Amino acid sequence: MDKILEGLVSSSHPLPLKRVIVRKVVESAEHWLDKAQCEAMFDLTTRLILEGQDPFQRQVGHQVLEAYARYHRPEFESFFNKTFVLSLLQQGYHSLDRKDVAILDYIHNGLKLIISCPSVLDLFSLLQVEVLRIVCERPEPQLCARLSDLLTDFVQCIPKGKLSITFCQQLVRTIGHFQCVSTQEKELREYVARVTKVSNLLQNIWKAEPATLLPSLQEVFASISSTDASFEPSVTLASLVQHIPLQMITVLIRSLTTDPNVKDASMTQALCRMIDWLSWPLAQHVDTWVIALLKGLAAVQKFTILIDVTLLKIELVFNRLSFPLVRPGALAVLSHMLLSFQHSPEAFHLIVPRVVNLVHSFKSDGLPSSTSFLVQLTELVHCMMYHYSGFPDLYEPILEAIKGFPKPTEEKIKLILSQSAWTSQSNSLASCLSRLSGKSETGKTGLINLGNTCYMNSVIQALFMATEFRRQVLSLNLNGCNSLMKKLQHLFAFLAHTQREAYAPRIFFDASRPPWFTPRSQQDCSEYLRFLLDRLHEEEKILKVQYSHKLSESLGCSEISLQEVASKATLLTQTSCPSDGEKTLIEKMFGGKLRTHICCLNCRSTSQKVEAFTDLSLAFCPSSSMENLSFQDPVSSPNAQASVSGPSEEPLVYNQAIAAFVCDSVINEGTIDSLPEELHCTENTSVPNESSKILVNNGESQKPGETTLSVTDLLNYFLAPEILTGDNQYYCENCASLQNAEKTMQITEEPEYLILTLLRFSYDQKYHVRRKILDNVSLPLILELPVKRTTSLTSLSESWSIDVDFTDISENLAKKLKPSGTEEACCPKLVPYLLSSVVVHSGISSESGHYYSYARNITGTESSYQMCHHQSETLNIASSQSHLLGKGSPTAVIEQDLENKEMSKEWFLFNDSRVTFTSFQSVQKITSRFPKDTAYVLLYKKQNSTNGLSGNNTPSGLWVNGDPPLQKELMDAVTKDNKLYLQEQELNARARALQAASASCSFRPNGFDDNDPPGSCGPTGGGGGGGFNTVGRLVF
């Protein structure tokens, strides 16, 4: 048979015919053959595999060898023995060199064929010695990558005991010898892939045998600190950095910087080469290690090394900013090097000639990532020019190039410089490790920033701290379901029970990111929150319809299509007055109802519509005077006439969207005769008068002496009547024409959790950009929401909307509303809410900045509820119609009492990976202390007479801290990850012992959360420390 096969593969027959005959040969492997015939076939197929002249011959060799080895395993075991394998590895095969990758591939496949045979153990022992010899010979990247493939599949071939340490050290040296001379993209990609395979092999060995880690790292340092001019270690050593546990950073850096055996020349060489690693495209945490080493050297006052390295490498680091893959790390290192080099302008002046060209190049591409980068670079340059003033000839071109970007305040520049100086690094070495603090103090888990994902992290933490919502999510039975709610439940379970200081929500981020959100770029957290709640709501509706369909099928009903499922889900949405059992979890937790009432000012006919909402968008009041305004209630005074401005005047339009986004337009004044009783303004009116109105400014904070608005004021303005006139005129069906009309909105059903979004981003019509409104808004601890519950809903048409979008009022809203002749009796009531969480935006535009959140646990405790409930009962409901939410409300007394008695419990500051204790005073003062840090999204929890929802009657004995017990699937996942975390900690017990004193370091330099703005985003994704961490203020 071997003669037939040999003649066939070398013949000139057509290829299809050859394939047919080869298939017959493979099928004949099932038949009995004597040992000599088998050996002849194995020898032929080996020759075809290793010396085949074309791919067809090598393919035939693999197919036939596998078939005959499977059916004649004893004969193949005898053929593929130690002697044969050893000769392949040491002598090669005929004309094939022993270092050819085909040799390793053949042995790799042979091991797969005899893995179940006893003789494979002898081969494992042989290979443990041979792979160490191969590595000591410094194989090329291709051969080393194939060897890594073999050892990854057959870990039994990895040397054991002391030889494993030697093997790892030699493998590190081999990586240090890798070189790639090609400049072609394909070859470069292959080279990077091969290096990655080798570094992954080392990572696996370090995990399996922790004793090999430190010797390997010592070998890395020995390679990069070598002063031998004849050898330059490869930059591919950077691929190993991402596999070094960050928990070891402090002890390793301290050991290096204090070791008397490490000479200054060696340390300088090592640091320079680590900076060169910034060019390796797939290396992670290189910037973290470089900055940590720079801080460590400053802590032991080795300033000579720092000066030499900075002057030698600052231009190279600046040039790396041109490459997008390595730009974030390069900017982090550049910022630290420049800001810490404060004794001389020499380092800064080395890069000054290059700044203008770099700024122009990034301006021209117009990418959001480039704009964010320029904001960070501009802030850094302003700090340096401030510190080294007196060079106008050098700085004028730079100032002209960056004049369109924000300039930091003098106070901020001084703070950044003082934190970044070398002399301030003596006690801040641990600040480069954000994820090592927090959990042990607060018991809360942070969320790792995955690259501009602080908008998601802040929202998720706020939702997680919404106690009732968290409990409902964790108690859902979602086994066998791969929905977004299941992923949220998984994330909540880890936040509640993981032992890690910070959790990486990669799976949830990929599933919940809106399709139009660009990865790794800053986004609007409010937009993300709306999208998330909408997805969860719509998903649950469809699942409910599918579940009912399964029940109907079990009863013998006919099949329905997917389109019918979707249509039924839509019908479920449009059904008015769904019962609590029919509501989705999102509706139960965040859903409220808002009634819009429009009265034609010509014929006095009215129309109304009730819509569902999950959050209210509160606009800032316009800057024009409103003190002479009064409004008329179209329901209570149907015969009254409104006073409308003459043809020469433009009537006043109160439009929440216009107030928020059209800030530079002039709004003329108009008058209306009377105010509805429930909206009548007292001396503490919610409609801004001369003493309370604010200026909606463009990127500037309030001037001293201006009155600070409260959330109550914005809510009043939201619910205040609005005159539809001009382009917003209402189409009256009774008049059959566009008419001036009055629109009022009333909340008819309150949500369990009230979400309020402050519309802080205004549209600058002159420059066509969105700017941030930096006005301070006071946050009441207790908010009383006016709710007018409807007793008759006969003629109301409802539709579910995840958010009441008030930016579309430029369209004719009235055309969407159908007249309703019914008038319903309303029962006004002030519903008390307690502040649960605050999402803060730090920055001056919606495209940049940083998000973090303050939050606390609110469980509807009896004491806090009774205080609110008792006060609400003492209010005169009838007289409440005379004001909406006046500042003189007794709520202020309750709030002060709660604050004084510390009824608000503990507050937490969630800043990506960091979680620290804070206080409500810090929440209140954040904008006054840091003008660019402003409250953006607020969550208020309704205070009920009973704790939680009616469905939460699970025996408390089964609930840990009030949360339901985890289902088995979730508990298994958390337990498995916790075990993995403990194994990781065992990699270096000494590192954890030395860091015990610093692991509980405060986020603030002085240990208090009021010293620095929490919104600092640095390379570690959560702020902290000096240098770039405070400069950037953009998520990295």
Write a structural description.
With 1036 residues, the protein is an alpha+beta fold. Helices cover 45% and strands 11% of the residues. The protein is built from 37 helices and 21 strands. The strands form six sheets. Strands 5, 11, 15, 17, 18, 19, 20 and 21 form an eight-stranded mixed sheet that branches. A five-stranded mixed sheet has the order 7-10-3-4-16, with no helix packed on it. α8 (120-136) crosses α10 (162-176) and α13 (249-258) crosses α36 (989-995). The longest helix is centred in the middle third of the chain and has 30 residues, at 525-554. The C terminus is likely disordered. Residues 445-943 form the USP domain. One of its GO terms (molecular function) is cysteine-type deubiquitinase activity. Pfam families: UCH, Usp38-like_N.
Supply the number of helical segments. Answer: 37
**What fraction, in percent, of the residue positions are helical?**
40-55%
> Which outline best applies?
globular
Biggest sheet overview:
8 strands, mixed
In what range is the share of β-strand residues?
5-15%
N- to C-terminal distance:
65 Å
* Protein structure class: alpha+beta
Q: Radius of gyration over alpha carbons?
A: 35 Å
Total beta strand runs? 21
Taking all residues together, what is the mean pLDDT?
Answer: 74
- Uncertain parts: 426-438, 572-576, 624-701, 792-826, 861-893, 900-905, 946-961, 997-1012, 1018-1036
Domain USP: 445-943
GO cellular component, one term: cytosol
Organism: Chrysochloris asiatica
Protein name: Ubiquitin carboxyl-terminal hydrolase 38-like
